[in-house]
Backbone:
């Protein structure tokens, strides 16, 4: 449900923000919308190539290793990565809510947890990339066969590394933004301003990273 | 709590911290449960992917994609709080995204059509894409075991 507004409220007669959000937050939303189109273009081109190809590698055979546990465990590692990202999204929401309540201690705690989650996700991705590279997979090189036993093209690895790489770069920049937010919080910048709206914008970016992972995870590892 | 009441623009959204915390917990549980269902479906396909018919596989994948959209909705609506914004603002974001409906249908249809045309009019391509590579599985499996660390 949209926010409750008194019926006689005239949003467009001037003197107030017609969307009732600050400028920066609105622009963050529009940036994220454009970013959604970038990721959408990547994923749709991936889908188009997949639909245009007779056979495709089975993700359960490609992604089946877990650090320390060996191979033959499809979906396990990526599930871990997915849950790490969901939990870090939750701590980010809690940080934003703590900001609304001007609860600096809770903001700091939840931001730290979010940053740890982001770094954990990046570490997982680094391990997975290193492992796949070790198996001979990279841009332009695909050691995996198609699900029906025929030879696969390099489209599979090209799309995988490009799209998860682009997403990983978003996670990385999200972690950097969150670290900056943490430093600003510790320096009482938001206390002095009287509000923590900046954290809300960083939070939007962070949730977007989680949102994109929902799509990447599904189309690369599940279907 | 500090709050500017003398300006018209406060960007104040109604906040009840306890209620919002409860909402966060609820959404977390929903997202986790949906993810677990997705994974269960994935494992089901993995464990029985030779016995499931093509239609069944398509059906499971379709369910997974619908669950994916449900997760996206919960993240955007509650974590990103879009559901609590003004309707006009929501529309400026959601309406442009409707372009995706056309993008997805048009491009996937195009890809599929390309595949069919190539298989029909380029028999060499079709022949090549049906040659099975002799199983070098042993080699790659061994390699796998070595590289699992």
Residues:
């Amino acid at each position: 449900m949209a926010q409750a507004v008194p019926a006689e409220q005239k949003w467009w007669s001037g003197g107030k923000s017609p969307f009732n959000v600050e400028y920066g937050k609105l622009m963050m939303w529009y940036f994220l919308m454009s970013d959604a189109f970038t990721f959408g273009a990547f994923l749709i081109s991936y889908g188009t190539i997949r639909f245009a190809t007779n056979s495709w590698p089975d993700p359960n055979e490609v992604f089946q290793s877990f650090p320390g546990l060996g191979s033959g465990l499809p979906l396990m590692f990526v599930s871990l990565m997915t849950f790490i990202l969901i939990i870090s999204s939750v701590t980010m929401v809690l940080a934003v809510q703590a900001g609304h309540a001007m609860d600096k201690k809770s903001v700091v705690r939840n931001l730290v947890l979010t940053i740890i989650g982001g770094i954990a996700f990046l570490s997982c991705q680094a391990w997975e990339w290193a492992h796949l590279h070790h198996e001979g997979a990279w841009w332009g090189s695909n050691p995996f066969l198609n699900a029906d036993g025929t030879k696969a093209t390099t489209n599979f690895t090209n799309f995988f590394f490009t799209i998860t790489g682009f997403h990983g770069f978003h996670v990385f920049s999200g972690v950097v933004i969150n670290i900056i937010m943490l430093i600003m919080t510790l320096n009482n910048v938001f206390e002095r301003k009287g509000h923590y709206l900046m954290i809300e914008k960083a939070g939007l970016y962070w949730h977007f990273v989680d949102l994109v992972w929902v799509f990447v995870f599904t189309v690369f590892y599940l279907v | 709590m500090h709050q500017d009441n003398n300006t018209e623009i406060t960007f104040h959204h109604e906040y009840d911290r306890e209620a919002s915390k409860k909402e966060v917990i609820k959404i977390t549980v929903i997202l986790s449960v949906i993810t677990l269902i997705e994974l269960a479906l994935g494992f089901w396909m993995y464990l029985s992917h030779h016995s499931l018919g093509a239609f069944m596989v398509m059906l499971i994948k379709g369910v997974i994609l619908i669950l994916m959209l449900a997760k996206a909705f919960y993240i955007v609506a509650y974590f990103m709080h879009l559901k609590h914004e003004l309707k006009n603002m929501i529309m400026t974001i959601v309406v442009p995204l409707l372009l995706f409906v056309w993008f997805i249908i048009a491009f996937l249809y195009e890809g599929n059509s390309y595949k069919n045309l190539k298989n029909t009019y380029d028999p060499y391509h079709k022949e090549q894409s049906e040659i099975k590579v002799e199983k070098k599985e042993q080699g790659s499996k061994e390699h796998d075991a070595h590289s699992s660390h």
In short: Chain A has a mean pLDDT of 93. Chain A touches chain B through 81 residues (CB under 8 Å).
